[in-house]
Design brief:
- 15% of the residues lie in helices and 51% in strands.
- It is built from one helix and ten strands; from the N terminus they run αββββββββββ.
- A hairpin with a 2-residue loop joins strand 6 and strand 7.
- The radius of gyration is 16 Å and the shape is globular.
């Protein structure tokens, strides 16, 4: 019962902090992990094996796992790499289950760490400009359920 209450409180806090932060335009003081930036490298949808990247600021509690929803028409062929703010690769393993990628960290990522999550070798089934949405959830070191962290919005242009 305690766990259910704890999870509910964190979920509501996350929803409230993101709404308030978006209204203010600043997420620096958030008490939960949150997405920061997104990019397609290069932005041209015709380039095969592009990289899609999003930033994640870990705060509030250590993060042990990320789950990334991959859109139906997107394929990630060269795995996912995670680096910290200094560019050091974070040791992790990635498993793909259908249209979901699960990144499990060897050691929980400490709060106040900024991560860059890179999807390598991305191919799409369309060659036109598009905005791709990747839902991202995370799991704290001592949690058994995922907490929504946001929607990574990756835009490609002709």
């Amino acid at each position: 019962m305690k766990f259910l209450i704890y999870t509910t409180i964190i979920s509501l806090s996350l929803a409230g902090s993101i709404t308030a932060a978006r209204a203010a335009g600043v997420l620096k003081d958030a008490k939960v992990p949150h997405l920061t930036t997104t990019a397609a490298i290069p932005r041209n949808p015709r380039v095969p094996f592009a990289k899609y990247r999003f930033g994640l600021h870990v705060s509030g509690y250590p993060l042990s796992q990320l789950t990334i929803g991959i859109p139906e028409r997107v394929r990630v062929s060269d795995g996912i790499t995670v680096t910290d703010q200094s560019g050091q690769e974070i040791e992790s393993s990635t498993t793909f289950e259908g249209n979901t990628a699960i990144v499990t960290f060897a050691q929980p990522v400490a709060p106040d760490t900024t991560l860059k999550v890179t999807l390598n070798g991305v191919r799409t089934s369309t060659f036109s400009s598009r905005v791709w949405l990747f839902p991202v959830t995370g799991r704290g070191a001592e949690m058994t359920t995922d907490i929504p962290l946001g929607m990574a919005r990756i835009a490609t242009y002709d």
